[in-house]
Design brief:
With 201 residues, the chain is α/β, with parallel strands linked by helices. It contains six helices and six strands; from the N terminus they run βαβαβαβαβααβ. It has one domain: Rossmann fold, CATH 3.40.50. It has a six-stranded parallel sheet with strand order 2-1-3-4-5-6, sandwiched between helices.
């Protein structure tokens, strides 16, 4: 398969690329570095990306910015960033990518545990994560040509917790999280939220 990994230079994305590269042609896309780049908040940038890379069998998005702050500190701009980048950016990867997707192609987006396990400061992130999970369930009903769509909802990632000097025991290693994306791409399910914590490992 020819697989595009948006955010393929990040912590989770790099692990996804490593997990798939031995069996597939994987093109890693960095948001601010790498051969291919795009601005998730810009539909024009996304459209130009697809024109450049051409047809594909699977697209994985392990990317998306969202604001984290106390509810009374979140501004309109914070919500707009979260909505235009992590939510609509990933929605547009599907919408604008459909004409370039081969029959039976799969799309795998990324939400996050804060949709179901919120914490103080996560209002904007919880909003967009839950929106993505609702979106893929509905979109799966309408995809043409045997295509599939799922969303992976990662927990905290061990590497990120260590970088932030937080307790790593509450997270999963990026390599373990990556197996949820592999399951989405190489499996047959559609319209599902995949929690890496529920997979055998």
């Amino acid at each position: 398969m020819r697989i595009l990994v948006v955010g393929g230079t990040g912590t989770i994305g790099s692990a996804v690329v490593a997990a798939l590269s031995s069996r597939h042609e994987v093109i890693a896309l960095g948001l601010n570095k790498g051969v291919y780049q795009l601005d998730l908040a810009s539909p024009d940038s996304i459209a130009a990306f697809f024109q450049t890379v051409g047809r594909f069998d699977a697209l994985i998005s392990a990317a998306g910015r969202a604001a984290f702050a106390a509810l009374d500190k979140l501004t309109d701009a914070d919500f707009q960033l979260s909505l235009s980048n992590k939510l609509m950016g990933q929605v547009n990867l599907l919408r604008l990518g459909l004409p370039f997707a081969n029959d039976g192609a799969s799309f795998t987006l990324t939400s996050g545990v804060l949709s179901r396990e919120p914490m103080k400061g996560s209002a904007a992130i919880s909003l967009v994560n839950a929106g993505l999970e609702g979106f893929i369930r509905a979109a799966a009903l309408e995809l043409p040509r045997g295509m599939r769509i799922n969303v992976v909802s990662p927990p905290w990632v061990t590497e990120t917790l260590l970088a932030r000097k937080m307790d790593p025991s509450i997270g999963l290693p990026a390599a373990t999280v990556a197996q949820a994306y592999v399951a989405s791409v190489e499996g047959s399910v559609t319209g599902q939220m995949i929690d890496p914590r529920t997979l055998p490992h």
